[in-house]
Amino acid sequence: MRIPPRITTLGGIAALLSVLFVGGPVTASAAGLPSTAAVGSVCYSALPSQAHDTLDLIEAGGPFPYDQDGTVFQNREALLPSRSTGYYHEYTVITPGSSDRGARRIVTGEAVEEDYYTADHYESFDLVDHDC
Length: 132
Description:
- The protein has helices at residues 10-22, 49-60, and strands spanning 40-43, 71-72, 89-92, 105-108, 115-118, 126-129.
- With 132 residues, the protein is of the alpha+beta class.
- It starts with 9 loop residues before the first helix and ends with a strand.
């Protein structure tokens, strides 16, 4: 399992340097964050509690409940911005009452707080807004 080194990405470095040396945040385009024209958005506070648990586990580096957690997400549906293989990773959001992994996932990109939530097994994605 590979945990994306978010702060070591260009976007994370740009954001960190901008705060340290410029005194303010950079915009998404300046930080190299993906365009999210084909992706919706969801407030962190609106996510189910199990998604909060998954995001906390990602931040802590695990341990994860399923062997598939942390594996490379291929973006075969092409709904997320096109990136090189290995850019995205997927994690299970536990579905209460489900006898298997269920349909809910968090897919992370390498940029800081680039977390996407899907409740329908990759048919749609919402970029998580961590500020609301």
